[in-house]
C-alpha cells in the first residue's frame, strides 16, 4: 500500500516544526544566555532535535509506535509548555509566534496521522503483504 498523502503532508509539517525549533532555539538561547551555560543549551537542543527527527523518520517509515510516541510526548508537553509560550510571547514576540506556529503545525500533523487513510496505512505497514 502506498503512503497516503496525509502522511506525506504530516511528516513535512513535523520536519518544518523541527526547523522552526532550530530557529527558536537560537533566539531563546541568546535571550537566556545569562541564566544557563550555552554549552548545556546546545547539548540538550541537539539531543532533543535528534530524537524528534528520529521519531519523524520512523513515522515516515510507517512505524505505528513512533506515531503513538509522538502523540504521547506532544500531549505530555502541551500543558507545561503553555506558561512558557505565554512568557515567550511577552519577552520575545518573534519566538512566541514561532512557538505558536510549531504547536499549530504539530496539531494538524497529528490529526492527519490519526485519520482513516493514515491509520490504515500504519496498520498495513505493520503487517506487509507477502
Oligomer: single chain
- Mean of residue pLDDT values: 89
Fraction of helical residues: over 70%
Distinct helical segment count:
5
End-to-end Cα distance = 12 Å
Q: Output the helix-strand order.
A: HHHHH
Secondary structure topology:
Elements: H1 5-31, H2 38-60, H3 64-91, H4 93-114, H5 116-126
Q: How does this structure look, described?
A:
The protein is 85% helix and 0% strand. It is mostly helical and 130 residues long. The chain has helices at residues 5-31, 38-60, 64-91, 93-114, 116-126. The chain has one domain (5-124). It starts with a helix and ends with a helix. It has 5 helices and no strands.
Give the key terms.
mainly alpha, 130 residues, elongated
Describe what is shown at a glance.
The chain has 130 residues and is an all-alpha fold. Helix content is 85%, strand content 0%.
Amino acid at each position: 500500500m502506498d503512503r497516503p498523502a496525509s502522511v506525506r503532508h504530516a511528516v513535512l509539517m513535523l520536519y518544518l516544526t523541527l526547523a522552526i525549533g532550530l530557529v527558536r532555539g537560537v533566539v531563546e538561547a541568546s535571550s537566556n544566555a545569562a541564566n544557563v551555560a550555552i554549552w548545556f543549551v546546545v547539548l540538550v537542543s541537539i539531543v532533543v532535535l535528534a530524537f524528534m527527527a528520529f521519531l519523524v523518520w520512523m513515522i515516515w517509515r510507517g512505524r505505528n509506535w513512533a506515531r503513538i510516541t509522538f502523540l504521547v510526548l506532544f500531549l505530555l508537553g502541551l500543558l507545561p509548555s503553555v506558561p512558557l509560550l505565554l512568557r515567550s510571547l511577552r519577552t520575545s514576540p518573534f519566538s512566541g509566534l514561532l512557538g505558536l506556529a510549531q504547536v499549530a503545525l504539530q496539531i494538524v500533523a497529528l490529526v492527519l496521522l490519526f485519520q482513516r487513510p493514515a491509520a490504515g496505512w500504519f496498520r498495513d505497514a505493520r503487517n506487509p503483504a507477502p
